[in-house]
Amino acid sequence: MVKRIYLFLVMLLLLLLIPLNGVFASAEQHVYDDANLLSTKEIEQLKALATQYEEEHDTKFVILTTNDTKGKGFKKYTQDFYDEQFDGGNVAIITVDMKDREIYIAGFYKAKEYIDNTRIEHILDKVQPQIANENYFEAFETFLQISDEYMGIRPGVDPELFIFKWQYQVVIALGLAGFVLWIMIRNSGGKVTVNERTYMNAKDSRILKRRDVYLRKTVTKRRKSKNNGGSGGSGGGVTSGGHSHSGGSRGF
């Protein structure tokens, strides 16, 4: 009798532990590489980077790849994935659909504010060529790094403005330093008291003759810009669970 009770308690404990392990694994997982685009080492590196950024921004960064969206399309597939795995919370997801060759990025809650539709288009500009060239690890690393950068810039500001780029900041700083130096050199030479009036007799000076000389005619041609396609689409939306999100997609 005692043995049966002991076995029953062991089985009950195992039943309780199995779902808990599943929940913890889901909470810790950042890379869902169902399309097998990454090596084990690459997954670990991306997971470490995503975990670091999650702690800094209170936002989870997720990489999702698939060969089959089960007929849902990449956007609905991403939305359902969010509802099933997270169902609320600050999450940014990049989905790569290998079957339809589409990239989709979505931001939920805090990520929706900091990684909005405009910023998603900037991220897609960077990762789309990398994925098209099958540099998957570099693309996902770029997604994480740029997302981390954007999470540090207040919402509503275009992070690609030149004032946020260090190269331009260096140029501006050098320009200001040069201007200040020029002012100092100019002032150090003393005031110039001689001008054109010093040697000009106002009474005897006059205009003797006027004439207009035609030099040349200049014609400027401008090429009419063309739309070469490749722009993003799909945008944000609302999941079946009622979670609003930003979004953008790009084919590769």
Automatic annotation (TrEMBL):
Keywords, in A-Z order: Membrane, Transmembrane, Transmembrane helix
Region (Disordered): 219-252
UniProt key word Phosphoprotein: no
Transmembrane feature ranges: 166-185
One Pfam family this sequence matches: TPM_phosphatase
Sequence ranges of Gly residues compositional bias: 229-252
Sequence ranges assigned to domain TPM in this UniProt record: 31-145
InterPro entries: TPM_dom
Source species, domain of life: Bacteria
Protein name, per record: TPM domain-containing protein
